[in-house]
Amino acid sequence: MLVGWNDSLAIERLHDLPDDSPGIGDAVRAGWRAEMRNSGLDSALALIDDYRLSFDDPAKSEALGAERVIALIEAGLDDSARAEAVQLSASATVSEWQAWAESAIYEMDNLQPGQSAPTFMSQARDGRQFDLAQVGAEYTMLEFYQPGSVEYQQDLPLRTRLPEIAGPDRLEIVSISLEPDEDLNEAFIDSRDLPGTHIVAPGGMEGELANLYNVRTIPKRFLLRNGVIIGKYHGRTLSVLAQDLQRELGNSTSGSQAD
């Protein structure tokens, strides 16, 4: 509760917690972010390492190894983050964290802004064959979700307005449901006027499309321009995507006028 409001006090309270306290992992996760805001990356990594060395439980120690990777990614040190993820993948004794490291490596190698989005073909719910490589709009919002996600449902009003925000024919929305129950998909999609292309991914969260875009939590969204990733968004961050899109559109318009 103190993080972001009083980071120094949050760190002080963290140090008062015993290492075997329930939820210590979550507390350290919040603590290193507070430390990063207060004193920078090196101090945040040192905090993680202090706790990592104090844990006898391999699962807790390797979980903090993952936190080091996340800290380096958030600091923009992608090469260092990838090197640590490779090391974690090789040394992890808990399969959960080995799989996490491999997933992080895939994300850094294939799904970063500036990289071409992985292409795919799939049948849309209207019966046509959809090919991401053939999208005609300049911008594409690719989103992965499940109909029962409260976060996704809360974003629906803004999602519906996005084509209007972008302007005529400038944005294609591609919504990929990872819900395997067809009855739930039908009830959700067919009862709403949601613009865009709708796809139900075979295999759900374990299927090829989810793996192609490394979807482990939902909703997860990507903003593309002419097939290149310009932003990715986890959780309820559609408002951030909308702001990024508006900024992109403004830059694109300014560039066209300058030409």
Question: Can you list the strand order of the major beta sheet?
Answer: 5-4-3-6-7
Global Rg: 21 Å
* Main sheet overview: 5 strands, mixed
Question: How many structural domains can be distinguished in the coordinates?
Answer: 2
Task: Identify low-pLDDT runs.
Answer: 1-5, 255-259
Structural class: alpha/beta
Mean pLDDT: 90
- What would the principal axes of the Cα set say about the shape? elongated
Helix content: 40-55%
In short:
It is built from ten helices and seven strands. By secondary structure, the protein is an alpha/beta fold.
Would you kindly provide a written description of the structure presented here, covering whatever features stand out?
The protein is 53% helix and 14% strand. The strands form 2 sheets. A 5-stranded mixed β-sheet has the order 5-4-3-6-7, with helices on one face. Strands 1-2 form a two-stranded antiparallel ribbon. A hairpin with a 5-residue loop joins strand 1 (121-123) and strand 2. It has 2 domains: 7-110, Serine Threonine Protein Phosphatase 5, Tetratricopeptide repeat, CATH 1.25.40; 121-258, Glutaredoxin. It has 259 residues and is an alpha/beta fold. The chain has helices spanning 7-16, 24-39, 41-54, 58-74, 78-91, 95-110, 150-166, 182-189, 208-212, 238-258, and strands at 121-123, 129-131, 139-145, 171-177, 197-200, 220-225, 228-234.
